[in-house]
Amino acid sequence: MTKWELKGDYFEACNCDVACPCIFSSYPPPDGHCSVVLAAHVNSGQFGDTRLDGLNTFVAIYSPGPMDKVKWKVAMYIDSRANKAQSEALEAIFTKVQEGGLFASAIGEYLGSKSAEIHYTADGKTRSLMVQGIADVEVEDFLGPDGRPTEFKNAHSLAPELLYVAKSTKLNYSDHGMNWQISGKNSYHAPFSWKSR
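The chain above was modelled as a monomer; its predicted structure follows.
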């Protein structure tokens, strides 16, 4: 297995009400399925000797039931600025079983990867993703009674230290026969530090 490590900022948005119960694995998704977009900006990272600093990626996930109990349909999108080695590295980190990919063991149907011009923005309490003709997503923090963002700790495998709860103002995705138009639903975001095990 190639040694890899990524640090950066990520957000996800889905079709569940705030807050999505999937992180509490004993609860099924309210709609019976999960439609999820997960976007990540890599501040620093490497896969073996291949540097991944500054690149963006996102995955679209459809889970036909509770995410910890069924296999997913997954499509991946990789920053068009990435060269061949970087693209292969990012795909491996997310999807390849032999490289300890983040989602590899959950994938039932992999729809492949595409190179795309991915615009990822993190600005205070908002996060956004834009991929022309494929995805347009924007989320903003869910504020608690004291006006600060709501937080979870020790709740999510991708961000066990600290996870912010947010809400989508829009989630539009269209590709591979999947067409989602969602708003006012769940989102999470967090700084991340992921590495091979």
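Residues 4-190 form one domain.
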